[in-house]
Design brief:
The longest helix has 14 residues. The N and C termini lie far apart (about 35 Å). The radius of gyration is 15 Å and the shape is globular. The strands form 2 sheets. A 6-stranded mixed beta sheet has the order 1-3-8-5-6-7, with helices on both faces. A two-stranded parallel ribbon has the order 2-4. Helix 2 packs across helix 3. The protein is α/β, with parallel strands linked by helices. The chain has one domain: glycerate kinase, domain 1 (3-Layer(aba) Sandwich). It has 6 helices and 8 strands; from the N terminus they run H-E-E-H-E-E-H-E-E-H-H-H-E-E.
């Protein structure tokens, strides 16, 4: 199975569950933060009467600069998406590397990625965690480790691409 097949399978399951699916394809590239911002705008525009699932795959990048914490492109995408959504009700997301390892981990327990909920940023605020500091230091692993949301399946032995899903539920 390759990235497009994984997205197609997810789309089929979502459609059978009653979701409208927007499949952006398995070849999305670019800076994780920029792509997350674009996807957040798209998700905000999708608030409608029916559940909607935005799917995408592809390999994103992170430009580290002088600050390099722990994490990888999927974790950085998830943190940037959480910041861009800033607690919009009824939007959940998942960003993960299908091989089970996204970037670096400080404790030898790699994460594949993270789950974002409408409570992610609010939970960080309650814990006194500065989201901007973590994103600016590319320290998304430590952010989700403290706030919750890390996906830790362990190495899967397969890599069919990164997998991202944003679920938008009706606001009624």
């Amino acid at each position: 199975m390759h990235g497009a097949a994984a997205l197609a399978a997810a789309a089929t399951d979502a459609e059978q569950a009653g979701c409208t699916v927007i499949n952006l394809g398995a070849a999305i590239t670019g800076e994780a933060r920029a792509v997350a911002h674009q996807h957040a705008q798209m998700a905000r525009a999708c608030l409608a009467d029916a559940p909607t699932l935005i799917l995408s795959g592809g390999e994103l990048t992170v430009r580290l600069g002088g600050q390099a914490g722990h994490g990888g492109p999927n974790l950085e995408y998830a943190l940037a998406l959480a910041i861009a959504l800033n607690g919009v009700a009824n939007i959940w997301a998942l960003a993960a590397d299908t091989d089970g390892i996204d970037g670096t981990a400080p404790d030898g327990q790699p994460a594949a990625g993270a789950i974002v909920t409408p409570e992610t940023v609010a939970r960080a605020r309650r814990l006194g965690i500065d989201t901007k500091r973590f994103i600016n230091h590319h320290d998304s692993y430590d952010f989700f480790d403290r706030v919750g949301g890390l996906i830790r399946p362990g190495p899967t032995g397969t890599n069919v691409n990164d997998f991202r899903a944003i679920l938008i539920l009706p606001t009624r």
